[in-house]
Design goal:
The chain is of the alpha+beta class. It is 30% helix and 26% strand. It folds into four domains: 183 residues, Ribosomal Protein S5, domain 2, CATH 3.30.230.70; 246 residues, 2-Layer Sandwich (Ribosomal Protein S5, domain 2), CATH 3.30.230; 63 residues, Ribosomal Protein S8, Chain: A, domain 1; 95 residues, Nucleic acid-binding proteins (OB fold (Dihydrolipoamide Acetyltransferase, E2P)), CATH 2.40.50. The longest helix has 25 residues. Pfam families: KH_1, PNPase, RNase_PH, RNase_PH_C.
Length: 703
């Protein structure tokens, strides 16, 4: 399949199949990083469905597609050769889905196979598995049904020699080796030969050496000056950069702009990494295992249902909690529902990263893949502690106001504080931290780590110039989310386990600081918060409550701002954004449903009704002035069959005698008949005093 692509592969598990293609240009791109794009698309046909948008075709990308694309990207990116700056695209398409096996892990393996079968330079293959935990035992690639009962959802991507290149939530590494061996055998059978790139973008040694002579001491001085913050450090380094690059351009007039910039970057990176590896020094003066200064505050703005500000060093996140009705939960698209079985969710975390957070100018609004991914990680960290029976939909917004590393984990911390401030009975507070790595490899074996240092609570520069961004979040008792972004071709399991250990220690320290601000959820929600109550409406009153075509419900919702949903035959759930709105809605409902005059009607009695409207199916009549008109069907007007009431000479405003038979127990409609009065049996005509009439809202169910 897809033989014009540089590489393609189909991976199947059960009856779920994913095809991946790999294409890489042969001309280099003017870039300073690997220009890799991964596109994972969920095809409706693969799930046996038709899209529900107005064009009935796939439009745009869903959150799940973007998150899976990022998952594949993180797995394969570390294994491209350093300096390979050629536009490369991996496209993963669902071919068939059985509803049993999740296709995301298959897509990682399909991308690995496609790259391995292509001539694109790539130091793979990798293998990926999902690990569940059921009945006290780890489970490899569990089915969707098994995952619903699993206490663990962990995706692991492994490189050859049992190294880890990506962790998403180190169980499973040995199983990745079986996949790797299979892909390697397939590549050998296909006799794959890798292409030789026209150029690998690396800094010329002569220029690097010139930069060392010109700038090493000044760069060292900046990186060891602990009075600098993010902005002043960047400005100081940039000043040295500009002066050094001017000299380089004079001495190497034929040099490309990339070579000049990269030569300076190589020197800065070497000095920074040497400080950590050899002198155990960090640029902000902290110990390798130290956490930055943390401050927390909650209940910042009274109108908000919950709020918190979490500050860690120069990373600052403002979180807010909003409650709304269960109807406002996130509804999954039909394809995602078919794949995952999840139809909606009543907890969500939305992460925003505005440009001013890093002293930059840029586009505001919208959402990019990075924001979606960071928000999904923070949401994953908090979701296990959210009560499943909470009566509202919960939205946490995390807006990054300042960023100098680990804003996603700061969002998890701030989100936990805001949830407790809002009175959400979370099972435990949650904290998160990012762990970094500076490593030294052997010149003979660049994939083997000779020496390394693990850094706790990394800064932005430590992420940028380091080898790993390992994010861990959890409670005092355990881990709720893991994500490892690795920039080197694989990590030994020993390093992974040490990173988890360091992160767990830091997590407990952060939780202690957070607990000094607020240690447990507030006993009650704020007074101005939303209210939800159940209202019982008898079947006989349901039609009046709903109104013609739902008119009363729409009027109620527009007037008071409440949301109403039916729970069962006689119960409606009323969500009000505030207690005042609930009180107003209750008065409205009481006014609609009360009917003192109808209670005076006697079963089997005869009343004088006034015709208010002529219809093809019958006439609309009222028994008393303020009553909502009800339909007297043609079949109940006369013993003979008629097509229109006019056949009997009836007209609007005319008074007729009808017999009252109460309300239908199934649909609540009022039952009246005129034809039964044409029998010779004597009847007593009842009347209702207009003085006893009450003002009532119109109702549809009586029609």
């Amino acid at each position: 399949l897809a033989r014009f692509a540089d590489g393609s592969a189909v991976v199947q598990l059960g009856d779920t199949s994913v095809m991946a293609t790999a294409v890489s240009r042969t001309k280099p791109s003017p870039s300073q990083f690997m220009p890799l794009v991964v596109d994972y698309r969920q095809k409706a046909a693969a799930a046996g469905r038709i899209p529900t948008n107005y064009l009935r075709r796939e439009l745009g990308t869903t959150d799940r597609e973007i998150l899976t694309s990022r998952l594949i990207d993180r797995s394969i990116r570390p294994l491209f050769p350093s300096g390979y700056f050629y536009d490369t695209q991996i496209a993963c398409n669902l071919l068939a889905v059985d509803g049993v096996n999740d296709p995301d892990v298959l897509a990682i393996n399909a991308a690995s196979a496609a790259l391995s079968l292509s001539d694109i330079p790539w130091n793979g293959p990798i293998g990926a598995v999902r690990v569940g935990f059921l009945d006290g035992q780890p489970l490899i690639n569990p089915t969707r049904a098994e995952m619903s009962s699993s206490s663990l959802n962990l995706i692991v991507a492994g490189a050859p020699s049992s190294q880890v290149v990506m962790i998403e939530a180190s169980v499973g590494v040995k199983h990745t080796q079986k996949i790797i061996q299979t892909i390697q055998q397939l590549a050998r059978e296909q006799k794959v030969t890798k292409r030789t790139p026209v150029k690998i973008f690396t800094a010329p040694p002569a220029m690097v050496e010139q930069v060392r002579q010109l700038a090493s001491q000044r760069v060292y001085a900046v990186l060891t000056d602990h009075t600098h913050d993010k902005i002043t450090r960047d400005e100081a380094i940039n000043e040295v950069r500009l002066e050094t690059e001017e000299v380089l351009k004079e001495k190497f007039p034929q040099a490309e702009p990339f070579e000049v910039m990269e030569s300076f970057n190589v020197v800065v990176k070497d000095i920074f990494r040497s400080l950590v590896l050899n002198e155990y020094r960090r640029c902000d003066g902290r110990e390798l295992t130290a956490v930055r200064n943390i401050s927390c505050d909650v209940d910042l703005f009274q109108p908000l249902h919950g709020s918190a500000l979490f500050q860690r060093g120069q990373t600052q996140v403002l979180c807010s909690v909003t409650f709304d009705s269960l109807e406002s939960s996130v509804k999954a698209d039909i394809i995602t529902t078919a794949l995952s079985g999840v139809k909606d969710k009543n907890f969500m975390l939305h992460y925003e990263f505005p440009p001013y957070a890093t002293n930059e100018i840029g586009r505001m609004g919208g959402m990019n893949r990075r924001e979606l991914g960071h928000g999904a990680l923070a949401e994953k960290a908090l979701r296990p502690v959210i009560p499943t029976d909470f009566p509202f939909t919960i939205r946490v917004t995390a807006e990054v106001l300042e960023s100098n590393g680990s804003s996603s984990m700061a969002s998890a911390c701030g989100g936990s504080l805001a949830l407790m401030d809002a009175g959400v009975p979370i099972s435990s507070p949650v904290a998160g931290v990012a762990i970094g790595l500076i490593s030294k490899t052997s010149e003979d074996k660049p994939t083997e780590i000779q020496d390394y240092r693990i850094l706790t609570d990394i800064l932005g520069i430590e992420d940028y110039l380091g080898d790993m961004d390992f994010k861990l979040a959890g409670t005092a008792k355990g881990i709720t989310a893991l994500q490892a972004d690795v920039k080197i071709p694989g990590l030994p399991l020993k390093v992974v386990m040490e990173a988890i250990s360091e992160a767990s220690v830091a997590k407990k320290e952060i939780l202690g600081i957070m607990n000094s601000c607020i240690a447990q959820p507030r006993k009650s929600r704020k007074e101005n918060g939303p209210v939800v109550e159940n209202v019982r409406v008898p079947v006989s009153k349901r039609a009046r409550f709903v109104g013609p075509g739902g008119y009363n419900l729409r009027r109620l919702q527009a007037k008071t701002g409440v949301t109403i949903s039916q729970v069962d035959e006689e119960t409606f759930s009323v969500f009000a954004p505030s207690p005042g709105a609930m009180h107003e809605a209750q008065e409205f409902i009481s006014d609609i449903c009360k009917d003192d005059q109808e209670q005076q009607l006697e079963f089997g009695a005869v009343y004088t009704a006034t015709i208010t409207e002529m219809r093809d199916s019958g006439v609309m009549v009222k028994l008393y002035p303020n009553m909502s008109a009800v339909l007297l069907h043609n079949s109940q007007l006369d013993h003979k069959r008629i097509k229109h009431p006019s056949a009997l000479g009836l007209e609007v405003g005319q008074q007729i005698q009808v017999k009252y038979f109460g309300r239908d127990p199934t649909d609540g409609r009022m039952r009246l008949s005129r034809k039964v009065l044409s029998s010779p049996a004597a009847t007593l005509v009842k009347t209702i005093s207009e003085k006893q009439s009450i003002s009532m809202g119109s109702s549809s169910g009586d029609m």
